[in-house]
Design brief:
By secondary structure, the chain is mainly alpha-helical. The protein is 58% helix and 3% strand. It is built from seven helices and two strands, in the order E-H-H-H-H-H-H-H-E. It is found in: Cytoplasmic vesicle, Autophagosome; Lysosome.
Length: 131
């Protein structure tokens, strides 16, 4: 199993975060706070399902104050819990166009299919992470 001390885990999380931040449109909340990929993930999952356990888990962590921190915690949760949470967010092309500029690999059907395939392959890996 992959644990917190694994160098591959740190590299994987950094790459996932890079992909999610790359060419992300700058959006602001009603109060002017900059939105990040955490907000994209929340919206994407809300469109797919009513509630998501991972979102509730991350929100319940009092120490996390920024969208980036919440996004990182959610990525780790998704790896540990398995399932298709990240994949679901990448299936809605309309949402992707709303959140990302044209250079994003998520807007290229071929690249998005490659990313989705890699994410589905991660479901076969056992992650033992401290959440």
């Amino acid at each position: 199993p992959v644990t917190d001390g694994s160098q591959e885990l740190h590299s994987l999380c950094a790459q996932l975060e890079f992909l999610l931040q790359f060419d992300l449109k700058e959006k602001r909340s009603f109060f002017g706070q900059r939105k990040d990929y955490w907000d994209f993930l929340c919206q994407g999952l809300a469109r797919c399902r009513q509630e998501h356990e991972g979102i509730h888990f991350v929100i319940s962590l009092d120490k996390l104050k920024t969208p980036v921190g919440r996004g990182r915690a959610f990525l780790r949760y998704c790896l540990a819990a398995g399932g298709e949470s990240l994949q679901l967010c990448l299936l809605d092309a309309e949402s992707l166009r709303e959140w990302y500029y044209a250079r994003s690999p998520f807007l290229s059907p071929q690249r998005r299919a490659e990313i989705l395939g890699s994410l589905y392959e991660l479901d076969c890996v056992t992650f033992h992470l401290a959440l």
